[in-house]
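Why do we care about 3D structure at all? Because function follows from shape, and shape follows, mostly, from sequence. That is the central idea of this module. The next example makes it concrete: a single protein chain, its amino acid sequence, and then its structure expressed as tokens.
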Amino acid sequence: MEESTEGYRGSALHVLRKYGVKAGQMVEVVTTDELETRGLIVPRYEYADDAHIVLKLKSGYNIGLQVNSVKSMRPIQDSKQEEKIDSTTARGHSEDSSLRKKNLLLVSTGGTIASRVDYRTGAVYPALSASDLYLTVPELDHLAVIHPEVVFSIYSENMTPSDWSVLSSRIIELARSKNSDGVVVMMGTDTLAYTSAALSFSLMGFEIPVVVVGAQRSSDRPSSDAALNLRSAALFALESKRPGVYVAMHLIENDQSIAIHAGTRVRKNHTSRRDAFQSIDAPLVATVENASEIKWNENYELPKEDNHRSDRFRLRTKFDKNVALVKFHPGFDPSVLSHLVENGIRGIIIEGTGLGHVSDLTVGVIADLVKSGIFVGMTSQCIWGHVDLNVYDTGRDLIQAGAVPLENMFAETAFAKLSWVLGNFEETSELMLTNFLGEFSLRIPLSTR
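And the structure:
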């Protein structure tokens, strides 16, 4: 089989050869019912049926055309002639660029949303250069002058606190040099909540909106959420005029609304659904409707400006890697905590059961660690609700041992915040209980939407 027709066989391959087209080409198709369609021929997997040809439309969605409905097909553009753009060129720098007033910094760290299909093999690869990144985001062409930058090209599970430091510094440097009106950070979803929380602290006081966005399904899939998430993230970054770090992902399974979450209050709660991300014990900031209109949530309140957000805390981009997140479980061996400290860990976030509990044996080890100068913060394995160490004996013993209850801050945010605090300041316990960005709340709102 020819490489350029990867995945096509039988009747489908016969039609492609009949009209002299290949996978990866832009074509115009007329069907037997006179429907005219334009799209890019997408490779298929080798086990796919031979009764359909798959086209990627300009909207970013895929459609399958039955081969027996194809009346004619002609190539429009050879994909090998795609324009190559170097890292100094931004989309929108064309003849009409004088009409474009906004600049969007588009940062890629990798992940599903920053991947593109190799039309020779059908494989999905990460964008490795500004040119590659450009070719993944044609949906943004009309919004602004786009300045693409690839900072990393890694799976999100490989990202470390040290990478957060690099990413934070690069965002500040690049956004200012490009005179950006907003920033969109593209990354994988597995650790997106950790990164959004980390950036929320390190970019505190930054002048423009930063929106972190991912995709649950890659752009080669018919149900991909990549294009809509990205367009909505870009719109919010450019038009909201609200500095801060946010997350843009599907609100529900349909394509009408994209939720804008506060960067410290969002969590991934499903492995694969497009609406996997939810704001926890906090209202949404806004929604973006149909990728064209920002609808603000009247239940959301901006974090209050106070002394805790002074210049001392502004744009602190260091993160300490010597932080651990540990989940307590039945039969937990508390020597694990001591072993972590022996290997250089300076602070530990524990996911306790219920209101924030661990076993009696573990309480004793925590007391020893705290006496030696190790910070131990308590969160809960429960998704919603507050840690409360005053209700049961175990909790009161933890308080006496020196563990710090972290209200309703959930583990991802607590881990990122502790890494940031230890990387920049001395007074760990005081700052972990300082509510900088609404990362915890004393009251749970009645409505989150």
